């Protein structure tokens, strides 16, 4: 990977992360998980890939505003970009699931308030070798895993946290599931998108946020 590409992607990560600290890292079920701290609520908005089944929908901004857009669930959820946000698109799952297809070994999301009220309610991110949640299960990360491995992550996040996953082998799909508690998250673009939009992002970083160098790069769905 070229130094130019690395610098563009790193600039993108700094724009998204509000924390200046280097990432905290843990190996969970064979998956390398990086916690980059709280997301920058002023970061760019992105289209959210994936297919929702059951009770799952893309919401715009904090959903308890009136009129709601789209209609609220029984629990409006906690916008990963913060309760005062009105523009970002994000997934809210309430007893359903969202499947994202695409070959890669890295994924980055903004995770709202991770819920692990009980085993039947915990938020789970699962990586499969095949499309649509088929093939072998490569590994899973539960909300409870975040609590046990990262001291800064809790259930009262406003805004949420930038969390990345690197799998030991390429996945074909990622499935986000939850039980009775909501799962609120937003996907972050793949590295090629950072490269294409890098100039604009770099300008935003200089004007709004000055961050220390990071010794690791926040990966994205690739």
Write structural notes for this entry:
It is a single chain. The chain is of the alpha+beta class. The chain has one domain: Jelly Rolls (Sandwich), CATH 2.60.120. 18% of the residues lie in helices and 33% in strands. It contains 3 helices and 10 strands, in the order αββββββββαββα. Strands 1, 2, 3, 4, 5, 6, 7, 8, 9 and 10 form a 10-stranded antiparallel sheet that branches. It starts with a helix and ends in a 14-residue tail after the last helix. The N terminus and C terminus are likely disordered.
Q: What is the topology?
A:
Layout: H1 3-16, E1 24-28, E2 31-38, E3 51-53, E4 56-60, E5 89-93, E6 97-111, E7 124-128, E8 137-142, H2 143-149, E9 161-177, E10 183-187, H3 191-208
Antiparallel strand pairs: 1-2, 2-9, 3-6, 4-5, 5-10, 6-9, 6-10, 7-8, 7-9
Order of helices and strands: HEEEEEEEEHEEH
CATH architecture descriptor: Sandwich
Which structural class do you get from the secondary structure elements? alpha+beta
> What number of structural domains do the residues give?
1
Brief write-up:
The chain has helices at residues 3-16, 143-149, 191-208, and strands at 24-28, 31-38, 51-53, 56-60, 89-93, 97-111, 124-128, 137-142, 161-177, 183-187.
Features of this protein?
about 220 residues; alpha+beta; Jelly Rolls; 10-stranded antiparallel sheet; 3 helices; 10 strands; about 20% helix; globular; disordered N terminus; disordered C terminus
């Amino acid at each position: 990977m070229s130094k130019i590409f690395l610098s563009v992607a790193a600039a993108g990560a700094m724009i998204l992360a509000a924390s200046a600290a280097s990432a905290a890292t843990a190996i969970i079920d064979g998956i390398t998980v990086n916690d980059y701290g709280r997301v920058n609520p002023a970061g760019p908005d992105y289209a959210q890939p994936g297919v929702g089944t059951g009770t799952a929908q893309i919401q715009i901004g904090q959903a308890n505003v009136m009129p709601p857009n789209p209609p609220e669930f029984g629990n409006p959820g906690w916008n990963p970009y913060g309760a005062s946000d009105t523009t970002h698109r994000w997934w809210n799952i309430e007893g359903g699931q969202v499947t994202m297809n695409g070959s890669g070994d890295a994924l980055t999301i903004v995770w709202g308030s991770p819920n692990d009220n009980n085993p039947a309610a915990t938020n789970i991110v699962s990586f499969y070798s095949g499309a649509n949640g088929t093939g072998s299960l490569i590994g899973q990360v539960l909300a409870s895993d975040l609590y046990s491995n990262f001291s800064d992550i809790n259930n009262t996040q406003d805004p949420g946290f930038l969390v990345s996953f690197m799998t030991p082998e390429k996945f074909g799909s990622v499935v986000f599931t939850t039980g009775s508690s909501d799962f609120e998250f937003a996907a972050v673009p793949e590295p090629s998108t950072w490269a294409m939009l890098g100039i604009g992002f770099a300008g935003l970083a200089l004007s709004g946020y000055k961050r220390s160098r990071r010794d690791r790069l926040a990966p994205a769905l690739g």
